[in-house]
Structure prediction request, 93 residues.
Amino acid sequence: MVKIFKSVAILEGISYLILFANMLLVKPNNYELYHHLLYPIGMSHGILFIGYILLALIIRKSQNWNLINLGIILLASLLPFATFFVERKYIKL
Prediction:
């Protein structure tokens, strides 16, 4: 489960950055392309986000995270690049 969480954390961070780039770079230049890209990128990011949250709650005990650490890990899902930090600092295989 921990390896899956590690993979999801990395993929969630990447999908967040792709979604952010799509909003900043593609939308102002090509509105039609923006709408064709937004749904699949947004859907995959949403699924990865939910998976990240659920897996964090599931592996909390096996990783010995207290409530403060869990709060930091859950908050990291809302900030760009933060899931990469979590993957390095908090996940012990």
Q: What stands out?
A: The chain has a mean pLDDT of 87. Residues 16 and 80 are 7 Å apart (CA to CA). The two ends are 10 Å apart (CA to CA). The first helix runs from residue 2 to 29.
